[in-house]
Design a protein that fits this description.
187 residues, alpha+beta, Jelly Rolls, six-stranded mixed β-sheet, 4 helices, 20% helix
């Protein structure tokens, strides 16, 4: 009984020890991001410079089917968005417009290889990934806020298939531009 009390006391006093002993729940999503963070940075060129100063610019489409440019993989881009009331989404966004000045848009992504991809952004905008083939939202491990290269970013982890076109739908963005990246495959 004394040993059990001691073990529980250590687990509560030191969460890392508690998780290691299997006594406290571990934040699996945080662990998933932490395990991929080095690979994401390597995929983006191994330096934080492109993360803090994106060089590539793209313009998001205002309607599904109108996108001309592919979203590059393993590059940081700044996307120019549109007024939300002008955007015709491929699938109704999960987050609707919150304020009249909110912005949104559509970007096209065609992964070159099947695997695990991380989509990251520095915005509070809502980002959906739509599987065009099945006309449904791609399932992600929950988005979470992470510290990456000195920036507070929202990251989501997706399993995507090679050659399939996905819509990256941005909605309810408080800013008319959005820095984002898709890094992968990371497996």
């Amino acid at each position: 009984m004394k040993l059990q009390y001691f073990v529980i006391s250590v687990a509560l006093a030191c969460p890392a020890a508690g998780s290691a002993m299997g006594l406290l729940p571990r934040d699996k999503d945080k662990a998933a991001w932490e395990s991929l963070q080095g690979q994401v940075l390597k995929g983006l060129g191994g330096s934080c410079e492109p993360v803090t100063q994106p060089a590539n610019r793209v313009t998001a489409a205002a309607m599904a089917g109108a996108a001309r440019d592919e979203l590059p993989v393993n590059k940081i881009v700044t996307a120019k968005l549109h007024a939300m009331d002008k955007v015709k989404f491929a699938r109704g966004p999960e987050k609707k417009q919150g304020k009249p000045q909110d912005a949104g848009g559509l970007l096209v992504l065609t992964p070159p290889v099947t695997g695990t991809y991380v989509l990251g952004t520095v915005s509070r905008a809502w980002v959906d990934v739509v599987d065009q083939e099945q006309n449904r939202f791609a399932v992600a491990k929950p988005y979470q806020w992470v510290d990456f290269c000195g920036r507070r970013m929202k990251a989501g982890i997706f399993e995507l298939r090679a050659g399939l076109r996905y819509w990256i739908q941005v909605s309810a963005s408080p800013e008319p531009t959005l820095d984002l990246f898709v890094a992968g495959p990371l497996n």
